[in-house]
Records
---
Amino acid sequence: MINTATSDLAIEGKHPTINAERLLIGISFLFVLINYVALMIQRPESMAGSLLSLIVWFSCAVVGHLLLNRYASSRDPFLFPITIFLSGWGLVTIERLAPTFADRQTLWLIVSTAGMLAVVVSSAPLRWLRNYRYLWLFAGIGLLFSTILLGRNPSGQIGAPQLWLGIGDINFQPSEALKILLVAFLASYLAEQAPIIRAERFLSGDRFRLLAFPPRVFGPILLMWSLCVVVLVWQRDLGTAVLFFAVFLILLYITTGYVSVLIGGAIMIIVAGVVAYGLFDVVRLRIDIWINPWAEADGRAYQIVQSLQAFASGSVFGQGIGQGAPVYIPVVHSDFAFAAVAEEWGLLGVLIIIACVAMLVLRGLIIALRRQSVPFQALVAAGLAASLGIQSIMIMGGVLRVLPLTGVTLPFLSYGGSSLVMSYIMIGFLIRLSIQDEKSA
Amino acid sequence: MTPYSHEFNRVLLGFLLALALITLAAVYWATFGPERLLSRDDNPRLVEAQASIRRGAILDRHESPLVETTVNENGQIIRTYLEPSAYSMTGYYSLKYGTGLAEAAYNDLLSGADVAETFSSQFDQDVLHMAPVGTDIRLTIDLELQSALASALADSRGAGVVLSVPDGQLLASVSLPIYDPNTLDENWDHLVKDPGDPFFNRALQGRYQPGGIFYIPLLISAVMNNADLEERYPDSKQPVVFDDITLVCQRNSARTQMTLAQAYRYGCAKPFADMIDTLGEAKVNEALQFFDFDSPVTLEGFLPGGEEEEAPESTSEITPEPTTDTVIYPFTETALGQGDIVVSPLHFATLMAAIINDGNAPEPHALLATRSPDSTEWRSIEAPRQSLPIMTKPTAEHIAQVMQSTTASYGLYLDGYDIGAYPAIAYAGDRTLTWFAAFARAETGKEVVVVIVIEDSDDLSKATQVGMQVLGQAITTQQAND
């Protein structure tokens, strides 16, 4: 149902949400345009491709804005502008770093925008995720499992993780879809169990009680979560496994209120890291170069050392688009797009991205707060916000040597079709949940 | 308070703390990182920064371009060396192998490191990240003369220098064989193994046995010690033997008794050996110290300075191999130019310059003027120091007279000029080399000195022909420079 009063305001262009969003999109457009123009001046031979990407991005921004005005006029005014801003920045960065991938990312942007709008316009997707949670989750796990047999790596590198499924040139990473499916499953299950857990906590009065809950309550979700993690570990997608675990912990903490969940979970991650260090070469490598990259700066730690040099080279104001040398960082357009931003837009650019991530998480949690009367919706909003936030922190921390590298991408900025589509759909769900004048699910 | 408010607040706080930590890390690497990281050897940006510099042009004294920087269609900076005859002076610039000769000596100017830090240049570099633009330089060399010298020596291995007197400007300097700096990177491995040592600059670095050319400093030392130049020495044509070297008169003469001036004219060693005997080693040695052959004269910054330099070490210094069983007159051997004293063409040129400059040896230099990137005017560069007195004015004039009269007796002349020219042979083991040293002076006051060394040659007439050709061209150049 659409509120006619807000719709009238939207049509007249007087709605505060719409005006705020229009201003933010306008600022984003200026930023993206200036950078594209600077790039086109330096590379006149690829001007046509750049121009097309810019037009597509702008069209997605305008179409998205107009359709959101029509179907979600009372939405959160920040989510879509931040998303379109970051993805525009990402698009121009990919155009600069790996022009051959820019066309593909532009196409994925169209698909992503369409996906986002689809979940905003209709309440059905959220309803389906809730009502058919086991079906969706098993489908996701099934797809993930199929990568063991049918998986491939778009780079074609022998020995690289085979995490994608694909037909022809189109590849898709099932673990990306599983982020949403797992959050929805956890939210649905925990929302049902929340009253029991809260009541027990209220009666016991103990906020630090260890997790001694009835197996029938937590058994199914632990089982589902374990299946995801096992497959991920099997496929060496350890970054995503850590991400799933962290989201699980946060949702569990929100539901139970037990701090021990977070403390215990953190200890488990550390213990798992120690065990994995002994078992997996890739984990050993990543922890070794995290602790001391300088010893192998020309070898195994080359990527992280070049990343740090990119930050140093960019200093405060950056070298300017196309003026730095981030291409010396291997796979910069995917894993290390953040370092490329640091080199060419400087600390200023980095702080803006961090602020945008903080804003996305904040808005997601505010939406979750507003939806507390419907626990499922609150937990979905919190879970999606946490997923975006944790993934961003993991990759930014890895690139800056605050955390070991994990191989996850920076949402909206890094190259990756699956990541872009799923991130947009997450934003779509958050926008859907942010609509103030109706109950979404 | 709603049911989950407390938990949401804590989760938000956790995220903000994590992002704050990341912010701190970013600030650290962006502010302290440059000092710590950017100068590391594994930073490819250093090479990028180096490659983006638009080095200044190198031109000759008349602004004829010798080396220029252009940008190709891919935006790549290309350094082009235009004049093959000038390779011995311009040297090379390579991202991989460094710099040599003039490119090394004036690297701070050419790379823009020496450009005054104006607000505009700092803004361009620090904010707009524009690559520095270097300063253009004009060398003292005259391209026409340089080409003439290179052509004259084309079939030989050796070196030649032309020095302007009294200002000490280097008008030409050639060392052969030489490399092509335009193809240096591709041919580096081949060049460093080349037995001809193209990286060894024979004009500046070559320490050659002086042989018969050392009669000039001996003559000077005799005059400085008030030796009687009219004294006749018996058996003047008798050979002087050292190890397996026998020094005979270089030109035929019927005289058996000669004065030192005559011995110089005919290139006979015996009278000089007797002179040394008469005066004593100490006095002759003391006089020779004035010429400071142990401290070679060179052009500052042109030559490799230490073990870390890329250019290979010289293997071309020609010195006699020691033997054990023939007559040895240690100091006499040295004083006759066949012993421990070795000298470069440039160093000998300064000695020759002193002869026609009232006994004052000019400091040779090669930089004439500079032009900064934002200017159209050239700024002249002063000579590095005043001339150094190495003999008295009367001594110099006396020697000049002897040399001029000897040259006249050879039938060598240049219309309108007083010239003193002397070809000589030197022996180095089983190799010989020929020297040619000459000066020419005009009433206008502008004078030139030419010194040429040709390796593996005992052809005095060839050395004379080459030398006179260059001397004639040099004096014409000096007239044009007035």
---
Amino acid sequence: MEKNYPDSPAEETDKDRSAQIDAVNGLLTRSIDLGIESIDFKAGDKILKQGEANDSLHVILEGEAELLRTDASGTPISVDRLKSGNFLGLISFWTKQTSFSASRAVTDLKCVRMRRDRFEKLMEEDREFNRVMQELIISNLTQRYRRMALLNVEVAHLTRDLEHERNSLRSTVEDLEVTRNRLIHQEKLATMGQLLAGIAHEINNPSSALLKSVEVLETQIPSLFEKGAPLEKLACEKQLLEAGSKGQFHSSDVIRERMESLQRDFPNLKRSMVRRLAQIEPEHLQEVAPELRKANRKGAFSRVDHLLSFFEIGVYLRSIHSAVGRITSLVRSLKNYGRTDGAERVNVDLSTCVEDTLMVLNNRLKHYRLVKDCPPLPPVSCHPGEINQVLTNLLVNACDATEAEKEIEVRGGRDEQHVWISVCDRGTGIPVKMLDKVFEANVTSKNQSGEFGLGLGLAISRDIIHKHGGRIEAKNREGGGACFTLLLPLDH
Amino acid sequence: MKQPYLICIDDEPDVLDAVVRDLAEFEDTFPIESAENAESARKLIDELIARGERIGIIYCDHVMPGENGVDLLVELNKMEVLKNTRKILLTGQAGLDATVIAVNDADLAHYVAKPWEKENLAKITKAQLAYYFVDEGLDPQGCMEFLDPVIMAEAIRKGFMTDL
């Protein structure tokens, strides 16, 4: 690094310089009678050594020398430049302490040199010499002092510049952190998208086969009872089959009530049979009442057993159908949830993102009371997989803040310029001094759970929403709890 | 003698139906009752106790809205009259911590992971009923086919049934 020593014309007064030059010239002309020797150095010559005693005083007549201080690591550092009129070794000579620095000729040097005994004698006996020396010494020292003061100013400036650079580096590092997190998250998202797509595909095939099979069964079995078909005469069985395919699973209380009533009416029936009968709606039970009474009287249960089988065929066909429906929905939501369409944006109604995310998070959300009010919304251009991640983040945060059985609200709507989705909880809310920092990286009120693809943090959520040209806001609610709202602009 | 009850607790109706259905062979000897959550399970159990019924086995899911299965079993285990009742977790989601609490504080007799196999569930039920009969000192005559033969044989060898 270039050192800027204060240049003589700029920093030192003309008066100082000309006084020094005069003094030096005076010395030169008298050097012979004063008995002071002249001595020359070539560029690069070492003159004085750091840490050595010095008994000579050098004055530079022509040329430039530099002072070097070697630091603890052994590196010599240039601490000053000296020109004509400057002393070399003044301080070590005067104080009789070892030399603070080494000196070296930068250019060829012409100097005069005075040994101590000569100098002391001259100082004592030659008044003119004494006066000139004193002035020269003082002007050297004040020169050095000024240079040192200006160097300190220089240091202060450099320190300030360094501080600026350090601050800007620090903020660059922070930006890089955020970018890195975002990239890692995108990786995770892409990997998860692939996994989900793969799983969805695998599940889809057998699930389609199931659906097809049950749909066929649901048509073909009833058709066996039609006119001309083999089971045409089994009217009772047909009714029960139909009843089963329209029924539903009842709560334990309902079953228990029906069982108690059936046991009163038909006390000879085994309890397991009574339980099966309790599944049948009372109006359809009329169909089999005669058979039940007969069985109850005679103790012959096989007929009732067969009738119940028809009912149950209907029930379990329906049950398969409904379960396959659930699998299909879930698979569709999983595929949507982990969508990574690459750089392409797609037009999506955000309310479907809400549906998909709610389905995927159902297991977590079922501990709370979910209030959902999200009508279909005009489509906006976005990356639905990323929006799902943001919704997941907000919902998981809401779950973490909420006690079991308490409310979590998910609402959606539009205004003139945006579509918005909000997730609100009745937890403890956001501490007031964190409100404007809640979207910053490393601001958290809980431990990192490290769940794959979930809970990525509000900083990344904000990143994603900003990337979509939207905004995300947090505020505390009246009555306690927090509300997070994301807004995306409507395309025009 | 009134035979002990089997209780099934699960919040999902189709799962509850499946459990009860798989235990159908036992129902004609050991009546089955069911509940969808901890609260109604408690009510049911209190009613049965008040009627002087015994409860042989409780099959309980863990993840339920409101109180979870492990907490319920821990509470029920404090009831003197249910001391010998076999408490079983029948669940897809009880983590290690919850299971440890169930073992230590609810005296958990068995853990069945969902999905279960019908034959396996029947086998476990026979074993647990056997333990219950032995602990309560009940006369197994008339229902030996529903009690695990190895456990019963061992118990008889040790002197069970000499006072009956």
